[in-house]
WD repeat domain 38
Amino acid sequence: ENSGAPGTLPGPGGAKAAGGHRGEGGPVKASAFSPGGQRLLTASEDGGGMAGRPGVGLLWRLSGHTGPVKVCRFFLDGRLFATTSCDYTIRLWDTAEAKCLHQRSVGTVSFSPDSTQLASGAQGSLLQSGQMLQHLGGHRDSVQSSDFAPSSDSLATGSWDSTISIWDLQMATPVIFHQELEGHSGNISCLCYSASGLLASGSWDKTIHIWKPSTRSLLVQLKGHVTWVKSIAFSPDGSQLASAGYSHIVKVWDCNTGKCIETLKGVLDVAHACAFTPDGKLLVIAPWAKGRRQTAAPPRDPW
């Protein structure tokens, strides 16, 4: 058992890797930066979570989940974060004290950018201050992914039924479902909005779609992964998209042309999650490699 602070060591291609999760089979499943990039939260197969400062070390270790932690997210103000687990619960935590404030049975989770609402699956619920506001019914199968629009006025959900639903949160209760995006031929495994309001979806069909939700338009389809897409993340300016397949490869795409501008092959093992730092200078990759995480500089604009 590794109970000390994670070490930092050189990684391939200018990347850095850090370990620290417990267990022989404890790969990092998800990661998230706090607003401002001062803290990095990682969630693991060993059922725990850790928070640290890049370049400094481990701040604290979380415990409480009884199954692998699948998702972790910070609120916009950084005061709270949430974790979801294969034990079918979501936990809300106080960042300053690393204290669990609330627990509820759920699947996937996403925060609204204004830090007032939280969406959770697998059946689809909308929470506020720990209380359920609405049950969102419409998918024909379990909800696997979700993300709020930058304005917090709509919510996208992806399902095993291979569709994406867009929910209008400005309407009076009950929440009105107002459009459905179709085009994938597999489970919608991940969703991500850009700062400008574009929506990216990754699927078990090995493709990524970038949509303009307001017009239901498919702008570009990204092909190149040889396995299903596990995680996607827009750069802060929305010009690039990083994607991790269920493989050793992470790709970075030009969102305007749809071309892959970089393929990162130095990942230690299967990449479960990827995220840009808030300033866009680094890309964090969480691979299946006994709790290690890697950071790498994303490619520069070729022009």
